[in-house]
Amino acid sequence: MESTEGPRKRQRVAPASASAAPYIPDELVRNILVRLPSRSVLRCRAVCKAWLRMASDPGFALEHHRLQPALPLVSFLRGGAGSSSKEAAGADPVGRCVEAFDLRADEFRPAVRFAGSGRFHIHGSCDGLLLLSFEDRFFVCNPATRQWTRLPAPLRSSWFVGFYRHEPTGEYRALFFRGDWANWPGTDYYILVPDSRKGRGIGLPSEKTGYRFSGEPLGPPVLLRGSLHWMPRQVRSHAIMVFDTATEVITFMDPPVVREHMSLLEVDGELAMFSCGNRVTMVELWLLKDYANGIWVCGHRVRLPAVEVSTFVFDESWRMFFMSEEGVVIVTPEQKLLHYDMNGTLRESFPCNGRNLKITPYTLKESLVRHTFFETHDNAGGRDDEPPPPFFRGL
User: What are the backbone angles phi and psi of residue 67, rounded to the nearest 5°?
Assistant: First the structure.
């Protein structure tokens, strides 16, 4: 009896395990896939031909991008958190890691690993594309697909100020400000287009009031409602400068308040402003509820523990804070990333396995949309046999 009991059980189980998988409607599969991170979607393409066909459809890529959250990007140097300055100055170059922080899941998504020895910068983010540079060369990259292309070399005495999609032409453009300090106010601005050999000047029509830059725009802009928005500066009554990316005309709008520390961001499709005083114990999130009439509403006021934020050092190029409807993210002097909810309660604490942890002034909204200007470099060499930039090594 014992010698046959086992096989009989296996015979009863075998047909169930060998039976066909339950049918899942294509609509349900699609609704699940469009909400997954890009890396998960790329893996799911290998499940079967039907999923590959579904996830490769251009309409799927557009819907997937629309449903992705805008995740803040954090940056840190690869290495031990306790590394000394002497260790950091060793012979081997130190890689900079850039990761997207998903506040809903309290997890990180790797975006960029820079392993080069030159100067590396993040300049802009638009539609899942990042504008990066190293050794004074500018690149447009898609972290989700690892595609990239070059920009023409910027002119001398010029500064990058914005990255956007020009709706009338569909071009992705990098906006630069050029200052002629010897013949002030001889200023100008111009655009560079990916996969192009040269730039194109736009000029500064003098007959348009407020059109001319009074100086280099302050900080990275927020791209929303077809316009770039720069945070207030110590001119024009702390006005927010607005650049219409379709007409390429500049106007100004008033901020809700004036604080020692202010930064603009996008929250659920609305222009928002994060603000706090020097003591940083109370942070505010203002939402521009009526864009046409400039009506702001304070959506949240969050009180934070003073002991954890009392020694922060502010940097114009980086953030020590990020705020959205999911809460507040803070970098502490001890190189920890803290996530508070809107009640000021600590949700999660993440120690940094590296050093020089900072929150970049950009968010990444992942995209699988394909662009013709990208060079994938699947074959040897690219344009002029140029090697790929060192942005994705180790991912």
Answer: -90, -5
What is the secondary structure of 297-335 as a DSSP string?
A: EEEEEEE--HHHHTT---BTTBBSEEEETTEEEEE-TTS
CA-to-CA dists, residue 316 to 166, 341, 387, angstroms: 28, 25, 33
Backbone angles phi, psi at 265, to 5 degrees: -160, 170
Q: Computed over its alpha carbons, how large is the radius of gyration of the chain?
A: 24
pLDDT above 80: residue 395: no
Q: State the maximum Cα–Cα separation within the chain, in Å, rounded to a whole number.
A: 102
pLDDT in tens, 41-58: 999 998 889 899 999 999
Look-up: residue for tokens 């010897």? 182
- Other CB atoms within 10 A of residue 121 CB: 14
Check: CB of residue 61 under 8 Å from CB of residue 144. no
- Residues 163 and 131 sit within 8 Å (Cβ to Cβ): yes
* Residue 242 exposure: Cα atoms within 13 Å on the Cβ side: 18
Average pLDDT, the chain: 75
What is the SS3 string spanning 93-127?
CCCEEEEEEECCCCEEEEEEEECCCCCEEEEEEEC
Among the listed residues 115, 75, 113, the one whose alpha carbon sits nearest the alpha carbon of residue 94: 115
- Rounded Cα gap, residues 94 and 117, in angstroms: 8
Residues near 193 by beta carbon (within 8 Å), at least 6 away in sequence: 151, 152, 171, 172, 173, 174, 199, 200
The mean per-residue pLDDT over the stretch 96-119 comes to 84
Distance in angstroms (rounded) separating the CA atoms of residues 155 and 177 = 10
- What is d(CA 380, CA 386) in angstroms, rounded to the nearest whole number? 9
Residue 99 token pair: 């990761």
